[in-house]
């Protein structure tokens, strides 16, 4: 089993920044993909960003490209999401997830483990 714990959410004004962290523990192994997803009230969970095991390959939703940066530190079993130029439409619960394969994919259903989520609220 793998446990994922997100932190770093909060309330920020439009145009501001936040940095989310996701700490992994348990049987993390190696060569696993990690990703960030978000879910706003009344909406389905959606892909935000994903990163390969090595960190050399990153993928973003069009809505966050150029504003968000995903990264990971495998020595610390931690993944990050730097969010800049935040907009009110970025308001959601943000979840981290991991996948026991080297293949990066976007659908939430393809991920094996999930954190409990952290709330991000962007005021206008």
What layout of secondary structure does this protein have?
Elements: E1 2-7, E2 10-13, E3 18-26, E4 33-39, E5 46-51, E6 58-60, E7 68-73, E8 78-83, E9 92-99, E10 113-114, E11 118-123
Parallel strand pairs: 2-11
Antiparallel strand pairs: 1-3, 3-8, 4-5, 4-9, 5-6, 7-8, 9-10, 9-11
What is the compact description of this entry?
The chain is built from no helices and 11 strands. It has 124 residues and is mainly β.
Question: What descriptive keywords fit this protein?
Answer:
single chain, 124 residues, mainly beta, four-stranded antiparallel sheet, 11 strands, globular
β-strand number: 11
Order of SSEs: EEEEEEEEEEE
Beta content comes to: over 45%
Shape: globular
What structural class is derived from the secondary structure elements?
Answer: mainly beta
Radius of gyration: 13 Å
Mean pLDDT: 95
Low-confidence blocks of residues: none
Strand count, sense and closure of the main sheet? Answer: 7 strands, mixed
Number of helices: 0
Terminal Cα separation, in Å? 40 Å
Helical amount = under 10%
């Amino acid at each position: 089993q793998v446990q994922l714990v997100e932190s770093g959410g909060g309330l920020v004004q439009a145009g501001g920044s936040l940095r989310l962290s996701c700490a992994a523990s348990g049987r993390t192994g190696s060569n696993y993909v990690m990703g960030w997803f978000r879910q706003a009230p009344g909406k389905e969970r959606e892909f935000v960003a994903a990163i390969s095991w090595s960190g050399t390959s990153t993928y973003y939703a069009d809505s966050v490209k150029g504003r968000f940066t995903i990264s990971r530190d495998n020595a610390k079993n931690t993944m990050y999401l730097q969010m800049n130029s935040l907009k009110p439409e970025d308001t959601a619960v943000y979840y981290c997830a991991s996948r026991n394969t080297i293949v990066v994919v976007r659908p939430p259903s393809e991920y094996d483990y999930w954190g409990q989520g952290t709330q991000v609220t962007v005021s206008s």
